Amino acid sequence: MSSEKPAVRLALLGCGTVGSEVVRLLHEQAADLTARIGAPLELVGIAVRRPGRQRGTIDPALFTTDALGLVKRDDVDVVIEVVGGIEPSRTWLTEALRAGKSVVTANKALLAEDGATLHDAAAEGGADLYYEAAVAGAIPLLRPLRESLHGDRVTRVTGIVNGTTNFILSSMDATGAGFGEALDEATELGYAEADPTADVEGFDAAAKAAILASLAFHTRVTAADVFREGMTGVTAADMASAKEMGCTIKLLCIAQRGPDSTGNESVSVRVHPAMIPRSHPLAGVGDAFNAVFVEAEAAGQLMFYGRGAGGTPTASAVLGDIVAAARNRISGTRAPSESSYAHLPIRPIGESVTRYHISLDVADRQGVLATVAGVFAKHEVSIATVRQSGREEDATLVIVTHGAPDANLAATVEDLRSLDIVRSIASVLRVEGGV
Amino acid sequence: MSSEKPAVRLALLGCGTVGSEVVRLLHEQAADLTARIGAPLELVGIAVRRPGRQRGTIDPALFTTDALGLVKRDDVDVVIEVVGGIEPSRTWLTEALRAGKSVVTANKALLAEDGATLHDAAAEGGADLYYEAAVAGAIPLLRPLRESLHGDRVTRVTGIVNGTTNFILSSMDATGAGFGEALDEATELGYAEADPTADVEGFDAAAKAAILASLAFHTRVTAADVFREGMTGVTAADMASAKEMGCTIKLLCIAQRGPDSTGNESVSVRVHPAMIPRSHPLAGVGDAFNAVFVEAEAAGQLMFYGRGAGGTPTASAVLGDIVAAARNRISGTRAPSESSYAHLPIRPIGESVTRYHISLDVADRQGVLATVAGVFAKHEVSIATVRQSGREEDATLVIVTHGAPDANLAATVEDLRSLDIVRSIASVLRVEGGV
Q1: Is A208 a catalytic residue?
Q2: How far does the signal peptide extend, from start to end residue (chains A, B) (predicted)?
Q3: Residues A5, A72, A101, A208: which is the catalytic one?
């Protein structure tokens, strides 16, 4: 396994759950990595906030609190960032890329909010920017989108990209528990953080959706372009209703290309809970697993499935990128750079065609259905199915629509809310996956 | 979309189902491909056996019967081969690679039988050799194995890589039909060829297994190294028995690394029908879809799912490779070459640890189970479950074993066959996926 080539020198920014796994794997797999790269990898420094902390068997001399200083060192070839957040990571990585150093990062927030700055710096410095670990952890997903499907036209990407919420929804589906109970279980088992906002409100999924949409459609999409609705409002009754329809509920990120209302090609990106049929490949993705379903004109339907988070799976993706970056440095080349030539406009959520599942508590009177149906017709929303179950004084109407612009559906719900005969709107959920 | 860079010139060998789709997509996606590559693609010639045949709107001047002459032309940068078979494809591709021309091929048979010759020629000529379409059609699978998982250690690859047999087994599972009836249906619908031998006897899957094992374990594995058992012996009774156990039956290719009987790291590659639990992600892969389940030390469980065959999906994979090869030519670089440094030995099937499901028709006498159990014990095979159902004169014993070397299991079955009390062995099937 010896090699005459000089080592490729790595600087690691961050040494938490993922960082420490990266160090462990670099050490354990050293012989294999050297053989695959054609040169050894050498870790020359690790930037941390608290250098005094004991970190297993890692040589204490490697630690520094001066991340920017480490990035600027002449003996650093590849910078690996597993800190997260916008600043100071953006400053470090921009500095590295401009100086021609390769960057491997797992920082989805930065890529989704301001990926352009990183891509521009990479172009300026002629450097590699890899971020496989930023979306869906261990699943090799970005490289296929970036490269394998480059001869095809991707039309839609539908993903379960947040493990915490998938764990919660899978548990609600399996046990009939409500959101609060399932969240408590997830927190106890370490699947949810003490403050679960980023997960349950869909911020994490929205960042990943922006990155996926950018790659799939060759267009810069940021987190601000993503319509986002969390899943805290999904109730046990919603899940029961989904089951009756042969569905389950998942928090989906959906990125789609297609003509807008004026016929121009555009991109729509959204994150929200949705009912999907149990026969859909995404419906069976349980526990904290992630999966991304890709539809392309020539390839047809593809799905990628695996662990979306966790120190070791994420470190696997980081290591894969390190190997790629190191090989490129040795052969004096670089990976395909960002492809954002298409510049497709972003379609607002109101123009996205979706389907709604609406559950209404109504007065059990003659003519209720006719009145309700009239509201749908007024907004040009076509009804696919209606289920009515009467009780003594009240009745429940469950209506599933055909596809219609989201704005029309939202206006329909608003109008229903103002009807006397509608006592309450028990739930409104989007329906996906061709029910 | 204009580009100042000169065109990358392509020669296509073969213009059947896949080839004609490649031509169509090259034409339809021309503007996008040019933008993604940074230069236009130009098809300069198509080698076919019968040039007179009408082929849609393709310029007849492109056709030639002289494939070798086309490959040797100075104005050819990338050679695309979709003919199949060992010769003359091997001669054409070796010629191209040695001359430094990039090769994109879908030829699984050639890669599985003599990939070494192609890889050596690529190394000699400093040329790219891409073959994403050779395994699992449209599914981006080889690039993730070749690159994304290069920082990890793959331990096992379990795949459904033949669409014809998956269609047949899915149909047997859904309808209770026997093999013959399901095969007839597959033939009628165009899923099975007039001579289905390559599919149903597992030759096609074995070639793909060799390619997957080579990539996963950085070791040259050929089709001759793969243990192969077809699925023509799977009966409606087997499928019914699988259902009773909460399983279904799939034709699997399994490539695994692990210590052999002397403790040395080795590789085992096999193709055979097997029972897998319905809860396994591969169990839900229906119709003619393919899926490959990958287990790696750090990444954990991954699955890749999509269309494994068909002109358009396969053409998508070919186009992705063409884009990669063209980008490399323009930037004067090449893809990571073959990684076969590990040179792991191939473990014979007898040493592979598997589990058996054995169904016996036995005489309904006292002591039968004790006698049968004694045979298992003699060969050091541990029994996991026994189910006995008696009839007037006969009884059926269904035995599922724990994991044991395949040779011990085979010897057990041989001994059972010679027992007086065993009237017949109704079926023997391997069991996978942790039932």
Answers
A1: yes
A2: none
A3: A208
Tokens of B388: 């006995």
Per-residue DSSP letter, B346? B
State the nearest Cα–Cα gap between A308 and chain B, in angstroms.
9
Q: Which residues contact B296 (CB under 8 A, 6 or more apart)?
A: A138, A316, B149, B152, B153, B154, B155, B302
Q: Which residue stretches of B147-299 are H helix?
A: 163-175, 179-188, 197-200, 203-217, 236-244
Q: Cβ of B331 and A331 within 8 Å?
A: no
Contact, A359 vs A413, CB < 8 A? Answer: no
Q: Where are the beta strands (DSSP E) in B19-97?
A: 41-47, 63-64, 78-81
Residue-wise pLDDT tens for chain B (435 aa)? 444 689 999 999 999 999 999 999 999 999 999 999 999 999 999 999 987 777 778 888 999 999 999 999 999 999 999 999 999 999 999 999 999 999 999 999 999 999 999 999 999 999 999 999 999 888 999 989 988 888 899 999 999 999 999 999 999 999 999 999 999 999 999 999 999 999 999 999 999 999 999 999 999 999 999 999 999 999 999 999 899 889 999 999 999 999 887 889 999 999 999 999 998 999 999 999 999 999 999 999 999 999 988 899 999 999 999 999 999 999 888 887 788 999 999 999 999 999 999 999 998 788 888 999 999 999 999 999 998 877 666 788 999 999 999 999 999 999 999 999 999 998 899 999 875
Structural domains in chain A, CATH included, are 8-141+312-330 (3.40.50.720), 142-307 (3.30.360.10), 352-431 (3.30.70.260)
Strands B422-431 and B265-277: parallel
ipTM: 0.90
Euclidean distance between CA atoms A398 and A385, whole angstroms = 8
Phi, psi of A172, rounded to the nearest 5 degrees: -60, -35
Q: Are B97 and B71 in contact (CB under 8 A)?
A: no
